[in-house]
Each structure stands twice: as C-alpha cells, then as structure tokens.
Amino acid sequence: NAGVTQTPKFQVLKTGQSMTLQCAQDMNHEYMSWYRQDPGMGLRLIHYSVGAGITDQGEVPNGYNVSRSTTEDFPLRLLSAAPSQTSVYFCASSYLRDTRSGTGELFFGEGSRLTVL
Amino acid sequence: AQSVTQPDIHITVSEGASLELRCNYSYGATPYLFWYVQSPGQGLQLLLKYFSGDTLVQGIKGFEAEFKRSQSSFNLRKPSVHWSDAAEYFCAVGAGYGNKLVFGAGTILRVKS
Prior knowledge:
Chain A is an all-beta fold.
C-alpha cells in the first residue's frame, strides 16, 4: 500500500518556467489537497478537491492551478514560477469521514522541495 | 476565521524528562483538533486527534493531549521524552467542509542527552 505518492521529490526551476507536481493516492480517498510549508509559517492550504471534477481554492492559491480528473490523481501546476514559490509542497488525502463537518484525518505524502531561481 | 497559535518556536528537553507543547486555537464551533509530527525530510504523521467525547486523547508513541474548551487549548504531553522524539510538531484545527486544516507555525523539539 503506497499511500500518497508525490513526484518529483526535488526540483529546481528558473523564474518563468512551468512545471507540474504530481500526486497520487491509492486509498480511494475523496478528498485531496495541496499545502505549502515555509519556515515559521506552518502549512498553508493552496487548493483542495472533494472529488473528481471538483476543486476549490485554499488560503494561498495565486500562481497555482489544479484539476481532478480521477479519484487517484491531483496534480499541482505552476504556470510561471516565481522565487516566492520556493517552498516544500505536500499533498494530502483523506476520506470525508464526517459529512456534517467534513473533517477527517489527513494522510500526507513525503513532500516535494521546489527551488525557483 | 480559524487560527492556531503555537507559542514556542523551539523547545529543548533532556532525554527522560517530561514534555508539554502548547497549542491555542480560535474557532467558533466545536473544534476538530490534531497533532502531527514531522521528522527531518519527511512528511507529516498523525500523532492524535480530538473529534468529540473524552477530552484526554491518547495517541501513538506515548503522546497524549488534553482539550480544554475554556482555555481554547489542546496541549501535547509526553511523560518521558526519547531522543527519537526530536522533530517538528504541528497543531492543527479542522476548518470546515472538505477536511481543510489550519496549521500552527510548528514547534521544533530538540532532545539533549
């Protein structure tokens, strides 16, 4: 059981380049999300999805796009990378365990460290 | 809006000593609270969670946390720290539909022998 798999683990980009961070989960979770982690700021939600074809913005969505064509995959796209996007990115998934509040335990990938020069 | 405050950026304890990491939250309704641990270069692992019921919650690796509504706190405790507990610890509160979590800034735990 692989859980949540992120690729690549490390990436260096130049300003203006585009790239996609891949995220796949094999637990049949409805919910998937992307966070970025910056020193002293914890994790901040970028985008999330509650099922295939449904996505929404989190706290810091600017500069990022997502789509959810299948239950398993939730890629994060940087269209024109900027140095401010240098960060560690985490994908997470979960069941929608409590339908009243929607809050369940998140399972995290190991992270993708992105450097934008 | 929901928020989480972890007042201590760094904490150093001696191996075998007790540990308490502080967490205060802001949320209008009954909170869903979590503690995660992150070892260097790794993802986040859930230590424990509080949804409802008993306010003292037991987790993995000998950790426990107590929910105190009157103090808006969810402090993490361990009676005897091991060197392998050195990591960064994050408190988080459930922020509504879709399993969104709001995280605190984290507390880095150092264990000295």
